[in-house]
Amino acid sequence: MSIKIGITGGIGSGKSVVSRLFGIMGIPVYISDIEAKRITQTDPVICQELCALVGQDVFQNGVLNRSLLASYMFGHPNRVQKVNEIIHPQVKEDFRRWAARFGGEQLVGMESAILVEAGFRSEVDFLVMVYAPLEVRVERAIKRDCSSREQVMKRIEAQMSDEVKRSHADFVIVNDDETPLIPQVLELISLLSKNNHYLCSAKNN
Ligand SMILES: CC(C)(COP(=O)(O)OP(=O)(O)OC[C@H]1O[C@@H](n2cnc3c(N)ncnc32)[C@H](O)[C@@H]1O)[C@@H](O)C(=O)NCCC(=O)NCCS
Ligand SMILES: Nc1ncnc2c1ncn2[C@@H]1O[C@H](COP(=O)(O)OP(=O)(O)OP(=O)(O)O)[C@@H](O)[C@H]1O
Questions:
Q1: Residue 64 pLDDT > 70, yes or no?
Q2: Where are the domains of the chain?
Q3: ipTM exceeding the 0.85 mark
Q4: N or C: which end of the chain has fewer CB within 10 A?
Q5: Is residue 205 scored above 50 in pLDDT?
Q6: Which of 15, 16, 31, 33 gets mutated to test ligand 1 (max ligand atoms within 8 A of its CB)?
Q7: Which residue's C-alpha comes closest to atom 4 of ligand 2?
C-alpha cells in the first residue's frame, strides 16, 4: 500500500506547482479540483441536488455553469457548506478508488485547497501545507484567473485560515517567491521515501 501525502494550502499558494513537481518525480497526484469538476459534471445525483439547491440554470445543456455556482456560493458560508456536502462525499469515494488503483506506488498525493475542511485529512498519512503570504496569494490568483480582488477574497473567506491549516500539517513548504521551492520538495520526497516501510531494503535482495 502507498503512503498518501496530502498537499494543501490556500488559493494561490502554489499547490498545483508543487503537485507538478511531485508528478515530475514520478509520484501520481489526485487533483481534487479537476476530479470534483469531472464528478460534478457526470454524477446525476449531484446534478439533481445542485439544481434543487441553486436552480435549474446551474446546468445549461448538461454543462455546469461554474461562474453561476461560484457567485451563488462564495460569500455565503451556509451555501458553501451545502454545496460541499453535495460534492465532497463523492470526491472522497472517488479518491479511495483512485488510490486503490495506484496501490503499487510507494507514494501518492492528493491536492486540495480545502483538504482539511472537506474531511479528507484522515484519507492521507502525511499533510503538507504549501504556504505563501496572503498578499502574494491574492496577487497570484488575480493574475492567473483574471479575477477581482473581491472575488479572490470571497474564496479565501471560504477556506480555513493559514494558522489553523498549519496546525493540521506535518510539513510546510514555503513558496513565497523568495525561498527556493525545488530543494524543499526534493527533501520532502526523500524524507517520506525513507519513511516508507514498503520500500524494498537492499538487504533483502
Ligand atoms: C465553484 C466552482 C464551480 C468554481 O469553479 P472555478 O473554475 O471558478 O474555480 P476552480 O474550481 O478552478 O477553483 C479555484 C480555487 O477556488 C477555491 N475553491 C474552489 N472550491 C472551493 C470551495 N468549495 N471552498 C473553498 N474554496 C474553494 C480553491 O482554492 C480552488 O483551487 C468549483 O470550484 C467547484 O465546483 N467547487 C466545488 C468543489 C470543490 O470543493 N472543489 C475544491 C476541491 S474538492
Ligand atoms: N514559485 C513560483 N514562482 C512563480 N510563479 C508561481 C510560483 N508558485 C506559484 N506561481 C504561480 O502562481 C499562480 C498560483 O499558483 P497555483 O495555481 O499553483 O496555486 P494553487 O495553490 O494551486 O491555487 P488554487 O487553490 O487556486 O488551485 C500560478 O499562476 C502559478 O504559476
A1: yes
A2: 1-27+103-196, 33-100
A3: yes
A4: C
A5: no
A6: 33
A7: 177
Q: What is the mean predicted confidence (pLDDT) over 42-71?
A: 95
Ligand-binding site membership of 9 (annotated): no
**Residue 29 is labelled as binding a ligand:** no
Q: Which CATH number fits domain 1-27+103-196: 3.90.550.10, 2.40.50.180, 3.40.50.2300, 3.40.50.300?
A: 3.40.50.300
Ligand 1 atom with the smallest distance to the CA of 64 is 3
**In Å, how far are 38, 85, 138 from 64, measured between CA atoms?**
10, 17, 26
Residue 12, annotated as binding a ligand: yes
pLDDT at 195: 60
Summarize pLDDT for 158-170 with one digit per residue, the tens.
999 999 999 999 9
Q: How far is the CA of 108 from the centre of ligand 2 (A)?
A: 21
